[in-house]
Amino acid sequence: MKRRYRSRSLTDFYNRFGIYMILIVLVVICAILSDSFLTMPNLILFFRQNAIITIITCGTLVVLISGEMDFSQGAIAAFGGCMAVLLTHTGKHVGIAVAGGLLAGVLFGALNGIIVTKCKIPSFIMTLATQRIARGAIMAYQNGRPAYSIGNLIWFSQGRIGGVIPIQIVFMVLVLLLTWFILNRTSLGRQIYAVGGNVKAAETSGIHTDRIKIFAFIFAGVMAAFGGIILMARMRAGQPTGAEGYEFTALTAVIIGGTSLMGGEGNIYGMFVGTLSVGVLNNFMTITRVNSYWQQVVQGILIAITVIVDARVHERRRKLV
Fold this sequence. Notes:
321 residues, mainly alpha, ABC transporter involved in vitamin B12 uptake, BtuC, two-stranded antiparallel ribbon, 13 helices, 2 strands, 1% strand
């Protein structure tokens, strides 16, 4: 009994504080090994870069809590971002261009949600298909070449509030607050957790589970497209190969932050710390000039470790119940 209690205590401690300890350790190691890591220019650059993946990861969080997965977000980000650039290039007002990019996110998200719920296709298969559709479509339309002349869309990258705060950071904070509000202060948020925790029980209690999952995918699509618009503005071009691999970075950050692959668990605080942890690691490898190919190896290992830890934690919980 004593051993069982100790095991439960260790599991609870990891769930509550593990991610924060990981972030602190990463920051300390990076600060020791790199003199430029904690400099103000690098910190500003870090938060500007991390803003995009944080926005996309908010969508990943909602989908995972609902009990599904989404591997199409990187491609949707590229499609939505390029769509906004192309509309701007044709002379459309920047508001219309952004709306067009976000609409693409809505449509791809709705496609994912409807097919997954109505046709009972596993979400990872459907979203992989959507990934190929979105990426292939924008590559074909642009013949694989970037689209330049982004006009006023540059504000989404270079704009500052009060001439001080980068607009990407403002967008990141607003999206974090929106996601927190939906998950913690609305009945919709409670239903998302309920559906992810036990879909059959949620159906029995009268929740329209299909609608909830469709909303989750649409939200993820919109966040991906919004992140893609900011990314293309930062790149100053509609790059059809942009945001490649972002879905895996987002998934890694969410799992590190304590969100379960099984659904029904996760929160915005852990997710944000998870994105910071992944961002710190990537930033450190960049400023220490680690080869980009080796960076992919490290990210792959990190994904494997986080999935293994998630599985072990849930297996231990099952045994302790």
